[in-house]
Write a structure and sequence with these properties.
By secondary structure, this protein is an alpha+beta fold. It folds into three domains: about 65-155, Trypsin-like serine proteases (Thrombin, subunit H); about 165-270, Thrombin, subunit H, CATH 2.40.10; about 275-370, PDZ domain (Pdz3 Domain). It is built from eight helices and 21 strands. The protein has helices at about 1-25, 55-60, 85-90, 115-120, 255-270, 285-290, 310-315, 335-340, and strands spanning about 65-70, 100-105, 110-115, 125-130, 135, 140-145, 150-155, 175-180, 190-200, 210-215, 225, 235-240, 250-255, 275, 280-285, 300-305, 320-325, 330, 350-355, 360-365, 365-370. The strands form four sheets. It has a seven-stranded antiparallel sheet with strand order 5-4-1-2-3-7-6. The chain has a six-stranded antiparallel barrel with strand order 8-9-10-13-12-11.
Length: about 375
């Protein structure tokens, strides 16, 4: 009995000594682990990004944005049928069919779709895939290469159509979303702001009045929708400035105001009709001012006039500086082209001029702008 009591006493002594050492040197070992205080979101607000989210706009507009696959049949080279060519080079496979990807926007329940001309240019077959995965073969209603717009039509029921916005009310800094099918990965929504308005002289289209945005636009987005935070259509995504082929935050969209005019004209007439006066315009610069001995400091100088064209018949001469068209001021070649194109062929309009003798005005009857050649 005494032996057991001695063992018990020694054990208790060792434990008390150990406790004293731990309490002195590592007291935190003897404290209970503290609970982490977490901030709990109120009920009903746990969805990520609910505050400031663009999900409603994206959901509303995305249903009307489609993916477009445009294909062109391969062309068999003539020499492949030549037996001497086959003797020396063997049998060669004919050229493979070419295929391109792009996007489009359903703008009418009747099946009309706006997209870019370059998306469907030269295509023999155009397939459209909706956001609900339905597919249909599209018919080309008409195209306008000078604004890089085209109108397609599909025959399907219950089509979602996007709501048209007002691009004329846009301001720099407004938030926008770009919706399309970049690189063929599937429908994608990106966000940004309006970086600039009225961009022209970029050398992309003949008639330019672009909305510039930093919302990511990549190959495959062409023809897709640029929308506001309500999901209303503001523009058709068209081009990017890039050295790598990917987005660098400089994208361009055709305003819906321009797209609407092209759409209405193509649906109504099958083509876009524009005014034309037959001149060769150039930007006014010191060299031309000196060469033509003109006093004007603003406007577009005419360096050539087509013989027997509308301008020649109206009395326009090389060296004249056009300062306005139908009361609309023009300060560069792009503005002159747009102002003349807006004229109705056959209806007289007034040109404001600056000549060596001073200011003048001419009445001119524009003709119809020749349609550009389309590759088919």
């Amino acid at each position: 009995m005494r032996k057991y009591w001695l063992v018990f006493s020694q054990t208790v002594t060792v434990l008390l000594a150990t406790y004293f050492v731990v309490a002195t040197l590592k007291p935190q070992w003897l404290r209970p682990a503290p609970e982490v205080a977490l901030l709990q979101a109120p009920a009903g607000t746990t969805r990520a990004g609910a505050i400031g989210s663009f999900s409603k706009a994206a959901k509303s507009a995305s249903a009307a944005v489609v993916s477009i696959t445009a294909s062109k049949a391969g062309t068999r080279q003539k020499q492949l049928a030549d037996p001497w060519f086959r003797f020396f080079f063997g049998d060669q496979d004919p050229a493979e069919a070419q295929q391109g990807l792009g996007s489009g926007v359903i703008v009418s329940p009747d099946g009309y779709i706006l997209t870019n001309h370059h998306v469907i240019e030269g295509a023999d077959n155009i397939e459209v895939t909706l956001n609900d995965q339905r597919t249909a073969r599209a018919r080309l209603v008409g195209t306008d290469p000078e604004t890089d717009l085209a109108v397609l039509r599909i025959e399907l029921g219950q089509l979602p159509a996007i709501v048209m916005g007002n691009s004329d009310e846009l301001e720099i800094g407004d938030q926008v979303l770009a919706i399309g099918n970049p690189f063929g990965v599937g429908q994608t929504v990106t966000s940004g702001i309006v970086s600039a308005l009225g961009r022209n002289q970029l050398g992309i289209n003949v008639f330019e009045n672009f909305i510039q945005t930093d919302a990511a636009i990549n190959p495959g987005n062409s023809g897709g929708a640029l929308v506001d935070t309500q999901g209303h259509l503001l523009g058709i995504n068209t081009a990017i400035y890039s050295r790598s082929g990917g987005s660098l935050g400089i994208g361009f969209a055709i305003p819906v105001s321009t797209a609407r005019q092209v759409l209405d004209a193509i649906v109504r007439d099958g083509r876009v009709t524009r005014g034309w006066i037959g001149v060769e315009p150039q930007e006014l610069n010191p060299e031309l001012i000196q060469a033509f001995n003109v006093k004007a400091q603003e406007g577009v100088i005419i360096t050539g006039v087509l013989q027997n064209g509308p301008a020649a018949q109206a009395g326009l001469k090389p060296g004249d500086v056009i300062t306005s068209v139908a009361g609309r001021p023009v300060r560069n070649v792009s503005e002159l082209l747009s102002a003349v194109a807006a004229l109705k062929p056959g209806e007289p309009a007034q040109l404001g001029l600056e000549r060596r003798e001073g200011r003048a005005a001419l009445s001119i009857t524009p003709g119809m702008r020749p349609a550009p050649k389309v590759t088919r």
